[in-house]
Amino acid sequence: MALTNMKVFNEQVQTTAIEMLAQQVDLFNAASNGAIVLTTEGFMGDYRFQNFFQSLHSAQRRVDRYAANSDASATALAQLQEIGVKVAGGFGPILWEPAQLTWVQMNPEAAILAIAQNLSEAMMKDMLNSSIAAAVAAMENVGSTVVYDTNTARDISYRDINAAHAKFGDMSQLLVCDVMDGQTYHDLIDQNLVNTPQLFQYGSVTIVDILGKRVVVTDAPALRESPTTTGNDIKVLSLVRGGVTVYEGSDLVTNLETTNGKLRIETTWQADYTFGLALKGYQWDTASGGKSPTDAELATGSNWDKIATSIKHTAGVLCLSQTN
Questions:
Q1: pTM of the model
Q2: Residue 96: its H or E element
């Protein structure tokens, strides 16, 4: 691999990474039933503002046709504002010696594929873990209106998840996806093995259905962490369609450098990327959370303010228990 081909190598890695990430985005959106939306839509600036009209249901009133015709109280037409925040990340530097490839007569495409695949997977993992951490923190901050807590040290059961869904009342059908870690998923399988209802449907792709909801199984750290230092929790996150939106704007910036001065020539490759994160019915607190947040700031519940009038218009609910 001649050094004159390094520029082409860099461009190919960037293009391949973006294409691979776009493919994963499509697959993930389908897998989560649209609950966690990963979109390649751009995200300009530090924040993203989206306005929507506040509910006007309170304007409904009873009328007495035989009472004095006095003035009626007006209901103001108002807008609420969801605010998402831009998050920055990096990948690398990746270090190798160009002669490593020429020595074994390896096709440079192998290195391109290895770097691009690992980059796109790392970005996807970052987006998913960050969005789950933010959603969990936001709901824990709201409290019992959206959180069902078993208050005991045991595995989460179907009844517990159902109790969490009940927080949405007659709108529980809006909850389309449950997000849980692998341990909780297999605990539920274990509970199901003694029953007659089937948990799985098999085809070319495994489809998991629990309580009529799609299930995403991922070992995101936030699904096993406690907001206190007293221990760990077990968490199942139930989301509505569009409950979490991740804006991947494809603004991948890469740099390839080849340096002399050592016994062998070395090359490093590095990337910077960003994505936006927004939660349905919540707004990022621009004062307390600030710009370009850290992982800890994204996972701080007080940085996500509930703005929807009803919890039924928010991202979803949370079921939690303590570890045994």
A1: 0.79
A2: strand 79-96
